[in-house]
Amino acid sequence: MSAISGVSAALKGAMCGALEVTPVPIGYAISTGFVMPDGDLLSFYLIDNEDGTFSLEDDGMTLPTAIASGLDLKSPVREGLLRGMLTDEGVRYDDDLTIRSEPVLESEIGAAALHFISALIRTRDLTLLSRENVAATFADDVRRELSTKLPPGLTISDDGKPTDSSGPDIVIRQAQTGITVARVFAAGGDLRLMDALVDYQAMGDGDSPIIAVVDRRKGRVTDRRLNTATNRGLPMAVLDGASDEWAGRVLGLIGKSDTAITARAH
Description:
This protein has 7 helices and 12 strands. Strand 9 (170-174) and strand 10 (180-187) form a beta hairpin. Helix 2 packs parallel to helix 4 (109-149) and helix 3 (76-88) runs antiparallel to helix 4 (109-149). Mean pLDDT is 83; it is low at 257-266. It is α+β, with helices and mostly antiparallel strands and 266 residues long. Strands 1-2-3-4-7 form a 5-stranded antiparallel sheet, covered by helices on one side. Strands 8-9-10-11-12 form a 5-stranded mixed sheet, with helices on both faces. It is elongated, with a radius of gyration of 24 Å. It folds into 2 domains: 2-132; 150-256, Rossmann fold (3-Layer(aba) Sandwich). InterPro entries: DUF1828 (IPR014960). This is DUF1828 domain-containing protein.
């Protein structure tokens, strides 16, 4: 029993030690030990309804952030999945995109809070899945568009994306020699843009050039990351809806590269 008590104490300490409850004008701000993808702790509010009941709310940014990351609530499937998931936890989202619980009594706050935390974590997971799907779809779109624009003598490698998930999405080679003339990153978000920048900064003499195709639609790549990549010299083509322009930019960068003809296979 002493061992079980020790385990219990350790678990309670880990799960509850980081919990902070701070009075605010609308009730209480609650911070947990769960870390969200942006590095912030999962937090929410306990609202005093002044009628003997309480409600739980997020800060109003969970869904707007999710939408900016690729969660399409205009899709009946995605929207229905989200609503069903939240309903499972006794939670809903309103027209202002705030996630809220139903009113509960003081004695029910603990259980309601666990369900609310679960709802926010599940929403995060749905967002991450949507982000991965958006990134994969963007890479496919870039590959398809470039394949129709390549001049004779160049081809997109059939190797596909390497096992290293941080590597390029598309490899362009000389058709006759197989020499790599460009490695293209489909930067559908900040992470892929930073992957491209890391590879670019690690380039050695004779390496094939790195080019990032940056998706600027719906704020998928932030100004901060774009500025970082620009200031560090990363060759980029920006997609904002005019496909011919960005594809032409990629081909222009390949043509201007000193290593376009002499690059070794990479």
